Please model this.
Amino acid sequence: MKKVVQSEENPDPIRARELLHTRRRFFGLGAGALGSVGATMGQLSLGSMLLGGKAGGTSQPTSSSLPVGTHFPAKAKRVIYLHMEGGPSHLDLWDYKPGLRNLYDLDLPDSVRNGQRLTGMTSGQVRFPVAPSLFRFSRYPNAQDGAWISELMPHTGGMARELCIVRSMHTDAINHEPAITFFQTGSQIPGRPSFGSWCSYGLGSANENLPTFVVLIAQGFGNMQALSERFWSSGFLDGRHSGCKIRGGANPVLYLKDSAGISRADRRRMLDLVGELNEQEEARSFDPEVATRLAQYEMAYRMQMSVPELVDFSDESQKTLDMYGPEVQKPGTFAANCLMARRLAERGVRFIQLYMRGWDAHGNLPNEIRLQAKAVDQPQAALLRDLAQRGLLEDTLVLWAGEFGRTVYSQGTLTRTNYGRDHHPRAFSVWLAGGGMAPGIVHGKTDDFGYNIVENPVSVHDLQATMLNQLGFDHERLVHRLQGRDYRLTDVEGTVLQELLS
Model:
């Protein structure tokens, strides 16, 4: 074997790695640790306590693990985001269009569609027949002249005085993956931090025994799209800002339980030893993810005590359980997850994300949406009522949204009792409640076909900017510098919509 001669041009690899730790690199890392976002020494100490460093350890959190702090007084301390994955039909739930009944099976006028983009699922259709909703709507009292809401959502309709309904949402994406990614991260391109991660990064923790960002998932009854874990990833932020998924069943968090024969004292000794080794590695490598690993080990240790208490509903009154409905005692259901969301909120978790799958109704929509709505209506209304009666709704911002809406025309065969709807990003509905949002209003308007927005359009970045405002952030200043660029949730646009605020 030919002997490799070490020289300045071909240094020893270990020596080459040591040379990377130059004076310039030392000061660069030091500046980051002292807070590229302007953290004070007091914030460093607070960040260390909030994010849960190892007791007696010497590790300092990296700049992207420190809470940035709010820019002005906040109206909301936390977010509960109910994401209806698949795109619920606004025309069958929130956007009442009674005139469509006179247009049944007529072709959607070209002047309405105006050459707008179609998915590959309906682009080959010979015609686009108008499909009026099968469902009745009722007007529920609110702070204006009432909110028209579908018979599928009677419990939620009963909370109309708390709802800020936006009927003029629009998005750029027309397919699920980019559309969900856009709603979660502010970009259609994967790799950016999720909304929950930005909140964790900005606000820090209010409970050292639970993650700042928790994800709960319920299975639906229709066509279910894949859920990628990158939807709750921290992207280029510190790894401890990623969402922690809590599952239904015997093991709410995988690998959290100790193996048989391992005592809590054994686990503590193991973590102390691993911590010492990781601290040595961090001092040697300056790798910020080593500190993240340390923090995550410690969080997992504390969650061994906090999670079993969290998922145990035995301390809830029968009245509360009944309010959430018959599915509340079944782990993993939307009802159980709504009650879990309230329990997480009162324990100080900053961002609670509930996914309800199954809203992608390309065919057989009436039957599927009945099942979907029945699963979410009573629990989500109970969540609002429960938060309100505990004094939590005023500083908890609740969002109900899908990634887009559905078309007014039928996908596939249209009959008097059945139809499907394709994806529709041009106009759809969401609602918000609590957290300083204007209660009991309806904002925005679509045309007579529910196809185009005619009043007060709201983009995804507008919605995100407005929610961040309620959390105390100027969305243009909640940034993280990466490779010479300041990144933010709202990218390069977004307007705070004052008309949605109380």
